[in-house]
Amino acid sequence: MNAGTNMLGMYIYGITIGMSLEDVAKIIMSPTAKIIAEMMEGNIFSNQKSITIQDVFDYFAFGPA
């Protein structure tokens, strides 16, 4: 179900706003959610910083930087 730590916030948010677990799971397993999860992965050895929600919107609006 793509239930890594990066996606935990999405699960919690979906359940909090009243979505069913089934609907949340469908969203989390979507290709878009997988892209977001990959974007959120940090790497302390390459000084890759975490992204903001604006970075996610920009990625989908304007493509990869």
Characterise this structure:
57% of the residues lie in helices and 0% in strands. It has 4 helices and no strands. It is globular.
- Summarize the main sheet: none
The share of residues in extended strands comes to under 5%
Poorly predicted sequence stretches spanning 5 or more consecutive residues: none
What separation lies between the terminal Cα atoms? 28 Å
Apparent shape: globular
In N-to-C order, the SSE pattern is HHHH
Number of helices: 4
The percentage helix is: 55-70%
Compute the average pLDDT: 76
Give the structural class: mainly alpha
State Rg. 13 Å
- Total beta strands: 0
Main traits of this protein?
single chain; globular; 65 residues; 57% helix; mainly alpha; 4 helices
List the helices and strands and how they pair.
Elements: H1 8-16, H2 21-28, H3 31-40, H4 53-62
Summarize the model shown.
With about 60 residues, the chain is mainly alpha-helical. About 55% of the residues lie in helices and about 0% in strands. The protein starts with 7 loop residues before the first helix and ends with a helix.
